[in-house]
Amino acid sequence: MNELPAAPRPLEALSFDARFVTSLPGDPASTNQCRQVHRACYSLVTPTPASAPRLRALVPEVAALLELSTTETPTLVRALAGNLVVDGMRPYAACDGGHQFGNWAGQLGDGRAITLCEVVTSRGERLEMQLKGAGVTPYSRRADGRAVLRSSLRELVCSEAMHHLGVPTTRALSLVTTGDDVMRDILYDGHPALEPGAVVCRVAPTFIRFGNFEIHAARGDVDTLRALVHFTLREHFPWLLVGGEPDLPGFLAEVARRTARMVVGWMRVGFVHGVMNTDNMSILGLTIDYGPYGWLEGFDPDWTPNTTDAGGRRYRFGNQPRVAQWNLTRFAEALAVLVDDTSPLAAALGAYTDELRVLEPQMMADKLGLTASPERAEEDDGLATALFSALAATETDMTLFFRRLADVDVASGVSTEARMAPLLVALYDEHAPRSGDVEPLARWLERYASRARDDAASPAERRARMNLANPIYVPRNYLVHEVIEAVTRGDDAPLARLMDVLRAPYVERPGQEAYAAKRPDWARHVPGCSMLSCSS
Q1: 298, 264, 128, 117: which is closest to 202 by C-alpha?
Q2: How would you class 92 by CB atoms within 10 Å of its CB: exposed for 0-12, middle for 13-18, buried for 19 or more?
Q3: Cα separation values, 94 from 26, 353, 503, Å
Q4: How far is CA 380 from CA 370, 392, 402, 406, 452, in A?
Q5: Which of 116, 216, 247, 420 has its CA 20 to 30 A from that of 457?
């Protein structure tokens, strides 16, 4: 007999725990000032109160995961702003390091993230609540530990959108504006300005990243590194503790497979993380740290949304699978400090490419509505490669192209014009059909139609499969920008409407056409739509 779900409760009535704090070595210093923190996994901190907190959004699905009541109370708002630490909470900032843009950056840590607690649900699940933008920690370096409304709203919207798209991600519970202005230079071009401050509360089983291990390995702190490994396996991968000893190759292989699944999800929906540093890589394979991310609108594998990455384009869309592998290698090097023979770890890294070899062809077959098979693998790989080349010939909206490809008539004898008709809406240049730029795409369509006719799936099956793999609604950069402007003016309704649409990204709904429209010309070069920074 299934148990009834627990009734939602006020925040102060939830069950809190703090295993990270009680199980691992902590920072003995209590002063909340920027410093190097050694032989510790965390520092206890207290969030900095906001002057006038106001709850702007509370996500009901995430509240339900926590068994939290959605009734707005002063206690709830104050806690989500960082103004109140509820009894049982043990707020802390984690110590980590990492490779940023391919270079070792030393100690980094939670500079503007403070984990409040671990909520223990009636189901026995444990979920951490973490405030982003709630003030200074010992890891804030020269920053203020705050976040602006712009970046906080972007994280709220995108993390929830990714969940509903089926991509592994952290979640977002709430958005609170603080009433305090924060100075930010959005493009790092010497033009700082005051912006409204905000705090987002994000939720995940854990926020442990590759960088949490790297910092101790880099310092030669084997004891702390070993303690963190044992804790991580005991709490999150218990099957990898064999006789009390950690199966490090098994741990690496599991993280590698999860990372592969996450990255393939990004590639499927056209998401560009923008800052794939090792301290932004979750050991659970969750998309984490939504900063200068972007959504691929005009299809361009070389596009990066991050202004800091504009020169080298390390984190461009098409390079994400390779960067993830590079990051996993750095994670493996951190674990290697604990072993004498590193060959099993080197072998375990192969789990990443093994997983990609399975997932990438299946993902592409789903997007094209084809039945993947070993016999046709080479043919289908060539078909995908030819498509990417054709899409590059003229600016084409990725989301709309793949969604409308399901509407293409693949029957024999259909004219090129009729076959192309459903796809014209995805072209940014309305003159492209007359200029000849779409000829590569037209030729590809004939090749695709022939392959689709030979497939085992019926036309109805093909369409259904494609519409489950290709969303119609994604949090396009310009849509989120418009919502940010509205909320800044005090109008929260557009945020609620966008969040509602993004809850069902694969289901077309009448009256929601504006949420599926391709990027307008005005958004092509507007900061926040096409150009973003790590303060975004």
Answers
A1: 128
A2: buried
A3: 9, 30, 32
A4: 9, 19, 16, 17, 11
A5: 420
Q: What distance in Å separates the CA atoms of residue 136 and residue 111, rounded to the nearest whole number?
A: 7
Residue 266 tokens, joined: 């990004």
Q: What is the pLDDT of residues 38-94, one digit of tens each?
A: 999 999 999 999 999 999 999 999 999 999 999 999 999 999 999 999 999 999 999
Task: Give dist(CA 528, CA 265) in Å, integer.
Answer: 23
Q: Mind listing the pLDDT tens digit for each residue in 422-460? A: 999 999 987 777 777 889 999 999 999 999 999 988 889
> Of the listed 279, 289, 309, 455, which one is catalytic?
279
* Contact yes or no for 121/3 (Cβ under 8 A): no
Q: With a cut of 50, say whether residue 2 has pLDDT above it.
A: no
Question: Considering only CA atoms, which of 185, 158, 181 is closest in space to residue 169?
Answer: 158
Tell the burial category of 435 from Cβ atoms under 10 Å away from its Cβ (0-12, 13-18, 19+). Answer: exposed
DSSP label of 106: E
Compute and round to an integer the Cα radius of gyration of the chain. 24
pLDDT digits (tens, 9 = 90+) for 473-531: 999 999 999 999 999 999 999 999 999 999 999 999 999 999 999 999 999 888 878 76
Whose structure tokens read 């002057």? 51
HEC-encoded secondary structure of 303-343: CCCEHHHCCCCCCCHHHHHHHHHHHHHHHHHHHHCCCCCCH
Q: How many CB atoms lie within 10 A of CB 312?
A: 12
Assess whether 279 carries a catalytic annotation.
yes
Q: Give the integer Cα–Cα distance in Å for 260 and 357.
A: 10
Domain boundaries, the chain: 11-211, 370-456
Long-range contacts of 54-58 (CB under 8 A, 24+ apart): 54/176, 54/177, 54/179, 55/80, 55/174, 55/175, 55/176, 56/175, 56/176, 56/177, 56/198, 56/487, 56/492, 56/495, 57/156, 57/174, 57/175, 57/492, 57/495, 57/496, 57/499, 58/173, 58/174
**Tokens standing for residue 528:** 């926040």
